[in-house]
Structures are given as structure tokens and as C-alpha cells.
Amino acid sequence: MSVADSGGRATATENRYRALLAVSEAIVSYRDLPALFHQLAGQLVRVAHCDALCVVLHDAATNTMRLHVMETDEPIAPGFEIVLRPEDDPAGLVWQTQEPLITSDVAELRRWPGFLERVEPYGVRSCCWLPLTPSRRRLGTLVFVSKRPAAYDGADVPFLQLVASQVAVAVENALAFQEIGSLKDKLAKEKTYLEEEVRSEHRFGDIVGENAALRAVLKQVETVAPTESTVLIQGETGTGKELFARAVHDLSPRKGRTFVKLNCAAIPTGLLESELFGHEKGAFTGAIGQKIGRFEVAHQGTLFLDEVGDIPLELQPKLLRVLQEHEFERLGSTKTIRVDVRLVAATNRDLPEMIAAGRFRSDLYYRLNVFPITLPPLRERADDIPRLVRHFTQGFARRMGRRIETIPSSVMDALVHYPWPGNVRELQNVIERAVILSPGPTLQVPAADLHVAPEPAAATSAPDSLTLSDAEREHILRVLRDTNWVVGGPDGAAARLGMKRSTLHWKMQKLGIARPERQFPS
Prior knowledge:
It is a single chain. By secondary structure, the protein is an alpha/beta fold. It contains 18 helices and 15 strands. It has 3 domains: 13-180, Beta-Lactamase (2-Layer Sandwich), CATH 3.30.450; 212-374, Rossmann fold, CATH 3.40.50.300; 384-510, Helicase, Ruva Protein, domain 3 (Orthogonal Bundle), CATH 1.10.8. The chain has helices at residues 3-29, 33-44, 90-97, 113-119, 157-204, 212-224, 241-250, 269-277, 294-297, 316-325, 351-356, 362-368, 385-400, 409-417, 423-437, 468-482, 493-497, 501-510, and strands at residues 52-59, 64-72, 81-84, 101-103, 126-132, 140-146, 231-234, 259-263, 278-279, 291-292, 302-306, 327-329, 336-338, 342-347, 371-374.
């Protein structure tokens, strides 16, 4: 062997290992797959003669081979990629067997007609496929392509496989960084979404639902809350008017101050003025000391007056004055007290009808009705019922130390199709009772709680002929009979219906329900 030959072989070997070192450096230098391919191509063409250099990666999600051209003497579009089935390409065979494959002429490629048809126009004669297999998974293959026949032989394989092992590590790292980047983007989006959910949860407390009508109401709350305007929340009993009043307060600049509530229907008429405005010692019989009224307590905060339609006519001018002038006097005092209070009122009554009947002042109504919000009854947001059922079931089960894992579809269907005259409050009470009565992990709702029994005289009429008002009347009648016509108390009809006692009396009057006279034997 001549010194020149020996030196030539030494130089070729040195160049190979320099290229191999450059590949190793690329492993830690390039995290982006296209940039890595570009860098690797520049080094690998020094390792072995090739007219094209490709990486074919297996996509586990679709079980396909994706060909990425790293280097070629033919012009190709940026990001060029071909999707192949493993059985239609030599790369698939190498990926499956994990054995290198060398072809010396196109005749050896006839086993893969699709591949041959694709490469023949470019004059491809010989190829060398090497498995890309880092320690954890089979990635695909590295492909050297030449227009010369027999460009590769078995003697090249050990070194080329060493190169392929380095390339596999580089590609695996780039794919890992790509996956990490994708996960970071996903986590960032989830974080944004969850933060929005947390903000929504904080804004609206226990208001549960995704119904379009409910969302429209929440949008109204968000709109009016930052202002100082008076809000009038209208809706049937049990629709959650207090929750929306709290939401208005929590989204307002007054959220750090006091939220004070008063149910005007729950206070005897003679004491309501004292509750609102306070009194001095001796102002009336039983006034043994000074009392601060709710308006004073709510100074710089929010006062929520529930059932505002129950305020007596003689007290309404004083309420109108405090809303207009922000001042009042306590009972038994001549001293004027000024307050800064944001008022949120609520009612289930038809105030315009009360005005027409002379039971409510029109000027007070207009002062309260600056920004009206009407809450949809539960029967108009039936799509929220499953969500509410799960919410209440989980809450009561946790509170009672019970474990409710299943809600039968038949039970859920019955809950969804029930008219719920008592709205969300009635649903809440029914679920609480169901959790108490369910002996095992399956929620059981007593059939009587969801059965609207017809009057005997109406038994022959078609079910479809019942109006919503008729159904509500019959339901209230059934509960009254079940409680022996006891309206108040923890076991009374009002509690079972999820209504206030005063509301039930009002509904009975509206629906023409009167207690039958007792029949005595003659």
C-alpha cells in the first residue's frame, strides 16, 4: 500500500468521523425539525455519495410513513412531504424489520410499484435504507438515494448505521421539543380557558347553567354591574333572584363593601319601616333601644330588597325619597341621615298590573325599573336541568357524607320533563330529599315528587289539554292535600314546593285554590 493510498484512506475516514461529530453537535444545537434536516443534510453528503437524502418517519396515530426530503439535486417545494402506507414503500419494511436494506438497481424495486413509479422519472438506480431507532422507539428510516447503480454495498452499512443512530437521536430530540412546544401551547390555552372559568365561577357564584337565555341575563349583569344604576330583577319564585343580585354587587365597584338583603314579604307590615330605616328608643311600643336600619348598614354598599312588590302602599313614598334624595329619618327622629346605597330590587309580581290596581306607585316603579333584568323560569331552560341535577346531587351528597355515583336516565328524563312550578328552588329541594332517601349509590327520586295528579273531574280529559297554569294548580293542590292543608312550617306545603309561605298564599289566591270546608257527620 502506498503512503498516498494510506493517506487518502485516512483522510476519507477522518472526513467521515468529522461528519459524524457534526451530526452529534446537531443533536444538541437544533430543536426545529426543518432546521435539523437542513443541517444534517450538509454533513451527511460528506459521509456517503447521494443525489437525494430523505428521512421517512412513522406516524403512530395514522400508521403511515411520512417522507421528508432533506437534500436533493432536484428542485422541490419547501416542506415537501409524501404520506405512504408501510406496505407500499421499502421504508415501511425497514421500519418493521429493523434491518438495513440496499438495492443496487431499479429492478430490485419492482416489489414496490408505487415507489418505483415515483422515483423512476428522477433516474434513481440504487438506495440504502437504515432504521432510525433510538433507545425508546422505532422512528422510521434514513434513506440515501443515488442515480448510480450499486452505489452502496454491505461494507458501508456498519458506518452508515452508526450515522443513522446519531441521526435517530437528533430527530428524536427535535420531535420531543416539537411535542413539548405543542403541549406548552395546549397548556397555555387550557390555562387561559380555566382562568376564564375561574373568573366566571367567581363572578356568578352558584349560578349554574349554559342555556342561551341564562347567558343573555349574565351578560346583562356584567353590563350594568359597574354602574350605579338601580336594578330590578323580575322572575318567578325560585329562579334565584338573590344570586343575581349578589352577582351585580360582586362585579361592581362596591364589591369590597357590605351586601345587605331584606325580604320585604317576610317582615310584618308594621315592622318593615323600622327594618328599612331604623328607629329611636321609644318610637313605638316595644322599641326599647335604638335600631339601625338596613339602609344605614348598606352605606357605600348594596341593598337588595327582595319581594319589593310587598312593600305597603303607605311606605312606598319614603322608599322613593331615599332612592331620589339619598336621605331619610329614623322612626321617632327628626334627624336626616344621608346614605350612599346602590339598590337592587326583585319581585315575582306584575308591578304594572299592581299600578293599574292602585297597589303600587307608578313613580316608585319607574325609579326601580331603571335597568330591568328578567330571569327565565326553569321550564324555559330545560337543557340546564341535567347540569343542575348533577350540581345539587354532588353538593348534597358531599354535605351529608353520602356517595351518589349514578343518576338513572329514566330519573333524569322525568326531572327534565317536569314543569317545575317552584323553579330551581323546588328542584334543589327535590334533589336534597332524593339524596336523603337514596339508600345506595344510585339517585332515587320519589315518583310522587314528579307526578302532577289531575282532579277527579278532569281525569277523563286528554293530558295534552292541560295548560301550564292547570298543571301548576293541580300540583299545588296535591301537595296541599298531602300536607293536610298545612301551608307553613318545615313540613308544610310551602317548604315542599320550595316557596315562601307568602308566595304560596299569593299563588293559591291567583289560581283560585281555597281550603275545602270540613264535613261533619249529621
